[in-house]
Amino acid sequence: MLSTGHASHRNLIRYTTLAMGLSPFSPSILPRLLLLLLILATPTWSWSQDVQHLRFVESSIEWQGELQTAITRYSNPSGQTVDLIAAIHIGDANYYQALNDYFRELDFLLFELVADEEMLLAANSELDDRSALGFLQRMLAEFLELEFQLTGINYRASNFRHADLSASELQELMAEKDESFFSMFIEFATAQIAAERQALANDSLAPSTLSLATLVTALSTDNQSQALKYLLAQELGRTGGLVLSREIESELTILGDRNRVAMEVLQQTLSEDVEHIGLFYGAAHMPGLERALQELGFTRGPQQWLPAWTIR
C-alpha cells in the first residue's frame, strides 16, 4: 500500500510536470531517456556550482570534447578520509583502468550494484547485469564505442565491499511505494525537464542543445558515434550541477534508499578504524551522499577530474 507521505511527494513530481504542460509521452522526453541509460538522471529542483561531480570540457574542434567525472575528498576531525567517486556507467576503457588503479590505493572501496548475494559471491565469473536497463546500457555502449562499467571495473578486488540494496530488497521497496521501473524513469525525465524550465527562467542554467532535431543532425554525420557521444556528453555536463531536494530524493527508491544503505555500510566501515575509504556511486547520487557526509562531520577537500569520454 502506498503511504500518504509517498503519495504526496510523488504527486508533487507529477503535478509540477503536468502544470508546466509536460506529458510522459511528449517528444521532448525521448532524448532524456537516452541520458537515463548513461547515468541516473533525476528530477532536480535547484542549481549549485559548488556540488558539480560531472562536467563537459569543450574543444575548439567541432564534435570534440571531454566528459569528466570527479573524485572529491572529505575528511573528519579524526583524520579519516572518504572519497566520493562519481561514476558514469559506460565510458572509455582507459577511464575504468584509471579507476582500477586508483581503487588499489584505498583501504576499502564501497561500491553500488543492485545484486543478490549469489551474484556477488560467484567466484571467478564476471559480474553481469541481466536487467533490461543493463541490456540497454550495453547496447548503447557498443554503439558509442565505449565500455560497460561492469566489464571495465575489477569487482573481484580484495578491498571491494558491497554498499547497495539487493535486487530483492529493491523490488520490495518499490512495491511498497507502488513504483515500477517504467513509471519511475518517466517521472524522472519529466520532472527534470520541469526543473530545467524553472532554472532557465531564472537564468541559472544554459539552454539544452539536446533535442530530436540535434539527434537527427548527429545521426546524419559521417561519424554518427562521435557526434551522438558529443551531444550526450554536452548535456550530461550541462546538468552536472543540478541538485535533488532532500524531500524528493528520500521518496525515490532508486536514489534515497540506496544512499541510505551506502551510508550505513560507510559508517560500519569507519568504525573499523580505517583511514581511507572510497565510495563509488553514480554521479546522480553524489549530492545526497555529500549531504550525508557533512552531517557526519566531514568537510570537503580537494577535487580531481578524470576523463570518462574523450571525444575526438
Write a structural description:
This protein is of the alpha/beta class. The protein has one domain (47-180, 206-311). Helices cover 47% and strands 19% of the residues. It is built from 13 helices and eleven strands. Strand 3 (65-75) and strand 4 (81-87) form a beta hairpin. Helix 1 crosses helix 8 (181-201) and helix 12 packs across helix 13. The longest helix has 21 residues, at 181-201. The chain is globular. The model is unreliable at 1-30 and 39-47 (pLDDT under 50).
Distance between the termini: 51 Å
Shape: globular
Please state the average pLDDT score.
78
Q: Please tell me how large the radius of gyration is.
A: 19 Å
Count of β-strands: 11
Number of helices: 13
Give the uncertain stretches in residue-range form: 1-30, 39-47
Q: Determine the structural class based on helices, strands and strand pairing.
A: alpha/beta
How much of the sequence lies in strands comes to 15-25%
How many structural units, i.e. domains? 1
Major pleated sheet: 7 strands, mixed
Helix and strand string, N-terminal first? HHEEEEEHEHHEHEHHHHEHHEHE
Instruction: Give the helix proportion (percent range).
Output: 40-55%
Labels describing this entry:
312 residues; alpha/beta; seven-stranded mixed β-sheet; two-stranded antiparallel ribbon; 13 helices; disordered N terminus
Give a quick summary of the entry.
The chain has 312 residues and is of the alpha/beta class. It has helices at residues 4-19, 29-38, 93-103, 117-121, 132-143, 149-152, 167-176, 181-201, 212-219, 224-238, 246-251, 253-270, 286-295, and strands spanning 46-47, 54-58, 65-75, 81-87, 90-91, 108-111, 147-148, 160-162, 242-243, 276-282, 299-311.
